[in-house]
Structure to design on (474 residues):
């Protein structure tokens, strides 16, 4: 190579290296970003912006506390009003002065209400628990119960004013990641955090969650689907305003969900590509109905730590009945039957064998025509109707304002596991309260459902089944 060509080649190589360094510099800078505002105290304005970033409404880094992402004063005030409308901001934390510094207690209280967790009972494990206000203690206690924060042998310091660096530590403690765009998020094998995964997109895939990270699905995810693969999820929280959203499990388990959204469905994707609906694991709806308990007779064991929905196989779901809740009867509804209590000297008069020992079957025998609601007497309770109105307590719940549609075709599954064949059968609804239910009158009812075709699940033919369905109209 001539000297002239060698010089030319060297110049071109140098230019190429400079261009590469130019484009790589911003990336390196972003990865090594250090904040120099650790000593600056946060303001309530900073909290509003943080919640907007968590919601995916402002695209900048949530750890960049001082960056308002071009949000002007009017935007911030409007956001505060919106948060008040969602009952995230209430009378306990005033936002009249956006430049006032919030206390640490107020920061955790606001973030807990934003997530949608409920207030737990009892004291926290923090040494200075007595310094916590009554309105914040339950929320901080629930964060403890979830394993997100640890209070043992520590002081909470509720009156402390946080600086921006300390707020960044709170963010890392409560939130593992925020998903704002369609992507696959795979949790690192060494992850020990139990912080929340926040979903702000209507097309996301989450894989390999083994440490029980709870998930928060925000309003921006509406009209979409979250697919969860090879994971074990403790709880999903669905924020107010979310609607028309599907949570799809693939080789995964979901312990429970808490929803303030509308039209949220849960499905299971099998290895054969078949999608089937799952029982609704939600604890309550926006009306704030408290969870009620129901005793399932004949459960095999009461030592299970939780009930799971997913993995469409009866063996994996058998522990589901162990965490069922006890349903309380109300004086207004004579159709609700209280479960029998077992004493030291008493005996169970029916169903002596467990449900796992006796296969589900149609209850036989003639009904007493003189009995109240005779159509629902002595029927099987081994089956359920699977639709979007099904709750974790195996009750169908409707809103009176939206009406009640008892469809002529229903997907029927096993009550113990939710197992089904994915095929809707022709059914008949019966009971003395049938007309009241069809008229959407508020109350609690029991109706009988009869399949007009044979029910076959996993090659087992149960014949034409007839069973009890409990319905609540609010």
């Amino acid at each position: 190579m001539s000297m002239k060509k060698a010089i030319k080649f060297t110049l071109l190589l140098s230019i190429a290296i400079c261009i590469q360094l130019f484009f790589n510099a911003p990336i390196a800078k972003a990865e090594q970003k250090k904040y120099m505002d650790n000593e600056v105290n946060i303001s309530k304005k900073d909290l509003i912006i943080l919640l907007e970033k968590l919601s995916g409404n402002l695209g900048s880094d949530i750890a960049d506390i001082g960056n308002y992402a071009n949000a002007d004063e009017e935007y911030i005030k409007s956001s505060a009003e919106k948060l008040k409308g969602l009952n995230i901001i209430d009378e306990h934390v005033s936002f009249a002065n956006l430049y006032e510094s919030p206390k640490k207690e107020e920061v955790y209280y606001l973030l807990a209400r934003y997530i949608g967790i409920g207030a737990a009972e009892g004291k926290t494990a923090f040494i200075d628990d007595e310094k916590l206000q009554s309105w914040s203690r339950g929320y901080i206690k629930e964060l403890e119960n979830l394993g997100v924060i640890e209070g043992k042998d520590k002081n909470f310091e509720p009156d402390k004013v946080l600086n921006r660096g300390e707020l960044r530590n709170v963010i890392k403690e409560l939130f593992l990641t925020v998903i704002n765009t369609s992507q696959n998020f795979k949790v690192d094998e060494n992850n020990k955090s139990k912080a929340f995964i926040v979903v702000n997109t209507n097309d996301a895939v989450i894989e390999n969650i083994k440490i029980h990270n709870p998930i928060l699905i925000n309003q921006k995810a509406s009209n979409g689907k979250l697919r969860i693969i090879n994971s074990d999820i403790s709880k999903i929280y669905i924020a107010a305003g979310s609607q028309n959203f599907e949570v799809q499990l693939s080789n995964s388990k979901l312990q429970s969900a808490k929803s303030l959204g509308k039209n949220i469905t849960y499905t299971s994707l099998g290895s054969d590509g078949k999608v089937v609906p799952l029982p609704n694991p939600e604890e309550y709806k926006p009306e704030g109905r408290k969870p009620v308990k129901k005793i399932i007779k004949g459960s095999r064991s009461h030592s299970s730590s939780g009930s799971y929905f997913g993995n469409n196989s009866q063996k994996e779901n058998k522990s589901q009945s162990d965490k069922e809740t006890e349903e309380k009867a109300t004086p207004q509804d004579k159709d609700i039957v209280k479960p029998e209590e077992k004493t030291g000297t008493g005996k169970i008069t029916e169903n002596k064998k467990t449900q796992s020992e006796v296969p589900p079957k149609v209850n036989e025998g003639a009904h007493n025509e003189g009995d109240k609601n005779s159509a629902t007497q002595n029927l099987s309770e081994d089956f359920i109707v699977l639709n979007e109105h099904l709750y974790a307590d195996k009750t169908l719940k409707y809103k009176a304002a939206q009406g009640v549609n008892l469809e002529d075709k229903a997907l029927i599954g096993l009550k113990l596991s939710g197992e089904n064949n994915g095929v809707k059968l022709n059914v008949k609804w019966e009971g003395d309260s049938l007309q009241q239910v069809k008229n959407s009158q508020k109350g609690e009812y029991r109706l009988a459902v009869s399949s007009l075709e044979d029910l076959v699940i996993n090659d087992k033919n149960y014949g034409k089944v007839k069973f009890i369905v409990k319905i609540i109209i609010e």
